[in-house]
Write a structure and sequence with these properties.
The structure holds two protein chains of two kinds. By secondary structure, chain A is mainly alpha-helical. Chain A has a domain of 38 residues. Chain A has three helices and two strands; from the N terminus they run H-H-H-E-E. Chain B contains 15 helices and eleven strands. By secondary structure, chain B is of the alpha/beta class. Chain B has a single domain, classed as Amidase signature (AS) domain (Amidase signature (AS) enzymes, Alpha-Beta Complex). Classes of the chains: A mainly alpha, B alpha/beta. Chains A and B meet through helix 1 and helix 2 of A and helix 9, helix 10, helix 11 and helix 12 of B.
Chain lengths: 95, 488
């Protein structure tokens, strides 16, 4: 399943990472190198094996559906690149 | 103060009032200032350190000392610290100052520890040489005999390992996703402990690969590491994978006899191209444990060679998902652009380094439509096979002994051109993360160039206690007294 420059461009756009066109071939080579190495996994017989979900068998804990921390807008906004009157300011989303 | 103070020695000295916490903090802050060429700290917090130390002195005077009262520590910059810049070694977090404290660091402050500053690391803990940090690489205090070449301290917890080895702090927090505590410990002659997955809360630790990430200590002695882990561990309802189990009194296991324990030596860890010195050290480790009364047997972990390929699906997949949150909207870096997509793409392209982008792309690819079953699901099934290998081995033995890393510390810049070659650093450590087991690296000897080498112990889930006993026996037998010559 070798990937080409066009696939890298598509994956990069899915991941919202901009890669300049002149980097795509080199990246495809790097990723193919890693993927070719990963292909070894096909040698393992996993017939009937359940995918692993946890190391130590535990049940996912349940908790009461209550507010545990009161909302504090100032704290939440403290690291915002841009905020105004208790809101995050973001670029226009809808044209 | 005596040369090479241990954390335990500091606790005793403070209790006996031989020195104050403030003096101890000041000594370490001065050492940090001198050691800036090592680039171990990305942020020094001298004012906070002195204030915390004064508070410790007051508590000691009142007879209210906690278990770590007045002990100065370095904190890997992956742990959120309230009001103190936390970067994960990345540009994308910008000047992020958390408004909350990670559970692990909160536990340390509860017990009286003092923060000296934040430690350098590979960006988002992705790397084995610390060369992926936005703040530049950490330099290993150790050098080849008679050489000035700068060596890597390993990674991703390279700052933690260097600060402990160079005596800039008495212990440090670290995290381990594929070997990031144990490999740097081996490269710097320090003790590194990765506990069972779920032993330490992940809450407030910047996420890399959530099913593998686990916090642990790096320290200069086995006992120091045990003292630190006891404070760091514990159930936390804020992390749904935190285990609701008692935290044992880890220090009490150090020094316990190991006679009669059965130790497995996995034959698949005898890899091609392993330096003869590492093989010899491994054999020496076996001999030491036999001398201490252990029975050593060969075991088989047949799926070992598939661990790294499985890891390089699972970890990037989880990372691509975890790192989707860095969108420039709520915190961290924002690079303005024409459209919303431009803002996302420019922010992430400028904010993430090359290795992080590479892993996000791999992760996005293996999770994308049509490939999920072939890659991610397959890797999780192989992961179960790897875990089953350990379960089978632990029916016959109480712990496993292996080398920690396939080489000693290497030169900065020597292995950056080939990602897969760099990934092979974790060949002996990554299986432990995949299976969620506890693992420790203990300094056991030096190579012909005088560089430290480590041995790794692997235990049953939640059986860190046995590992601490075995690590104590190895430490005593190895009598590792080599020190890096001070050149900084």
């Amino acid at each position: 399943m070798a990937i080409d420059a066009a696939t890298v461009k598509k994956v990069a756009s899915l991941a919202r990472i901009r890669e300049p066109d002149d980097r795509l071939e080199a990246l495809a080579d790097e990723l193919n190198g890693i993927l070719a190495w990963i292909e070894q996994l096909n040698e393992v017989d996993t017939e009937g094996v359940e995918p692993m979900t946890s190391a130590v068998a535990t049940k996912l804990p349940m908790r009461e559906d209550v507010v545990s921390e009161p909302g504090d807008a100032a704290r939440i906004l403290a690291n915002a690149p841009k905020s105004e009157r208790g809101f995050f300011v973001v670029p226009k989303v809808v044209e | 103060m005596a040369e090479r103070l241990t954390l335990k020695g500091a606790i005793d000295g403070l209790r006996a009032k031989r020195f104050s916490a403030e003096e101890l903090a000041a000594t370490h802050l001065a050492a940090m200032e001198q050691a800036r060429p090592l680039n171990a700290f990305v942020l020094e917090t001298p004012e906070a350190a002195i204030a915390m130390a004064k508070a410790s002195d007051a508590r000691i005077a009142r007879g209210e000392a906690g278990p770590l009262e007045g002990v100065p520590l370095g904190i890997k910059d992956l742990f959120c610290t309230e009001g103190v810049r936390t970067t994960a070694g990345s540009k994308i977090l910008g000047n992020f100052k958390p408004t909350y404290e990670s559970t692990v660091t909160a536990n340390l402050w509860r017990d009286g520890a003092v923060m000296l500053g934040k430690l350098n690391m590979d960006e988002f803990a992705m790397g084995s040489s610390n060369e992926n940090s936005a703040f530049g690489p950490v330099v290993n205090p150790w050098r080849n005999r008679g050489s000035n070449q700068a060596l890597t301290p390993g990674g991703s917890s390279g700052g933690s390992a260097t600060a402990v080895a160079a005596e800039l702090c008495l212990g440090a927090t670290a995290t381990d996703t594929g070997g990031s505590i144990r490999q740097p410990a081996a490269f710097t002659g320090t003790v590194g402990v990765k506990p069972t997955y779920g032993r330490c809360s992940r809450w407030g630790i910047v996420a890399f690969a959530s099913s593998l990430d686990q916090a642990g200590p790096i320290a200069r002695t086995v006992e120091d590491a045990a003292i630190l882990l006891k404070s760091m561990a514990g159930h936390d309802p804020k992390d749904s994978t935190s285990l609701n189990v008692e935290t044992p009194d880890f220090p009490s296991f150090v020094g316990k006899p190991v006679k009669g324990l059965r130790i497995g030596v996995p034959k698949e860890y005898r890899v091609d191209g392993m330096p003869p010195e590492i093989e010899a050290l491994w054999a020496q480790g076996v001999a030491w444990l036999k001398d201490a009364g252990c029975e050593v047997v060969e075991v088989s972990l047949p799926h070992t060679r598939f661990a790294l390929p499985a890891y390089y699906i699972i970890a990037p997949a989880e990372a691509s998902s975890n790192l989707a949150r860095y969108d420039g909207m709520r915190f961290g870096l924002r690079v303005d652009g024409e459209t919303l997509t431009d803002v996302y793409e420019e922010t992430r392209s400028q904010g993430f380094g090359a290795e992080v982008k590479r892993r996000i792309l791999i992760g996005t690819y293996v999770l994308s439509a049509g490939y999920y079953d072939a890659y991610y699901l397959k890797a999780q099934k192989v992961r179960q096979r790897i875990a089953d290998d350990f379960t089978t081995a632990f029916e016959r033995v109480d712990a496993l002994l292996t080398p920690t890393a396939p080489s000693a510390a290497f030169g900065l810049g020597e292995r950056t051109s080939d990602p897969v070659a760099m990934y092979l650093n974790d060949i002996f450590t990554v299986t432990v993360n995949l299976a969620g087991l506890p693992g420790m690296s203990i300094p056991a000897g030096v190579d012909a160039q005088g560089l430290p080498l480590g041995l790794q112990l692997i235990g049953r889930p939640l059986d860190e206690g046995t590992l601490f006993s075995l690590a104590g026996a190895l430490e005593q037998a190895a009598d590792f007294t080599a020190r890096p010559e001070r050149w900084w």
